[in-house]
Amino acid sequence: MSELLYISLAILSGFFTALSDVLSKDYMNRTQTDSLFALYVRWVFCSISLIPLIFVDPIPKIDLETVALYLILFPLEILAGYLYMKSLEVSESTLVLPFQSFTPVFIPPIAVFIIGESYSTRGLIGIALVVIGSFLFFKDNGSRKISDKRGILYMLASAIIYALTSVLGRYLILKVSPFFFSVSYMSALCIILTPYFTKKYKGGFSKIKSSLKPSFILGFTTALAVITHFISVMEIETGYMIAFKRTSVIFSVVLGYLMLSEKTDLKERLAGSLIMTLGIFVIGVAIT
After folding, report:
1. What does the angle CA 70 – CA 74 – CA 78 come to, to the nearest 5 degrees?
2. What is the pTM of this model?
3. Mean pLDDT, range 207-228, rounded to an integer
């Protein structure tokens, strides 16, 4: 029963991730801002939304290893986040977001080497099915455009970096707690980015203030994605958890169509959804 709970949280994280991504694209369009501006807004209001969680658990002891891992993660997370948002800025979300499904492909060898996770043959087959299914979501959809090719490369690079940060993040969560990690991690990222944001965007805070409601909604949905991610990854191997989370591909296509009027091919999307669902079922059987 507990496994099903954490699987549900991982899939829920996928939904909130998709919602936050589509809202990010919409935010950039509505406010006429770029990817870095939207990333900063997303993280700032995510941090504000997460602050109450700092009181859930006692503050853990922080050793030198923990500090070192935080320092390694910060530049990687900023780079991955920027590439992710840049991809959304230059291309349709329904085209580039499926490439995030490559993250669980890179995770097993990294996780085995760094934190000693083990993966069954059945579980690896499930991960492969999730990736294959998501790949069908974008086949032949606008990849001839230069901007789309750039967007795909940005998202692929982001997916590779997220494979590493997901593994290191899980190790840190197990050392501290998902609540402390979510608050401290996101808050620190905002603090690091603030001087650059202030210098690059003159009057940036005034612009945020003028669009306070969409800014908060963007950050709040990101916070929901973050906390459901961190809680579920405590109990599920990283590769499996990210495979479940990549159901965000299905959600992003639906939300992109409904909220952004982005084009979709129903036959390809349906086929991809069915294959991804089969992969999720295989992973679920492997770990329950």
Report:
1. 160
2. 0.87
3. 95
The amino acid sitting at 269 is R
Of 25-34, 42-51, 56-65, 179-188, the range with the lowest mean pLDDT is: 56-65
Q: Quick one: average pLDDT of 216-230?
A: 95
Would you list the domain boundaries of the chain? 2-287
Virtual CA dihedral for 23, 29, 33, 34, nearest 10 degrees?
Answer: 80
What is the chain's alpha carbon radius of gyration, rounded to the nearest angstrom?
A: 18
First-to-final CA distance of the chain: 8
* pLDDT score recorded for residue 101: 76
Tokens (6 digits) for 45: 């209001």
Phi-psi region of 142 (alpha: psi -120 to 50; beta: other; left: phi over 0): left
Question: How large is the angle between the packed helices 238-245 and 146-175, nearest 10 degrees?
Answer: 130
The set of residues, in sequence order, having a beta carbon less than 8 Å from that of 118 and lying 6+ positions away, is: 112, 237
Query: Which 3 state secondary structure label does DSSP give 163?
Result: helix
Is 70 exceeded by the pLDDT of residue 1? no
- 265 by Cβ neighbours in 10 Å (0-12 / 13-18 / 19+) ranks as middle
Residue 231 has which token pair? 């809680």
Distances (CA, A) of 233 to 60, 106, 275: 19, 16, 23
Best CA proximity match to 26, nearest among 279, 259, 208, 267: 259
* Pair 244, 7: CB distance under 8 Å: yes
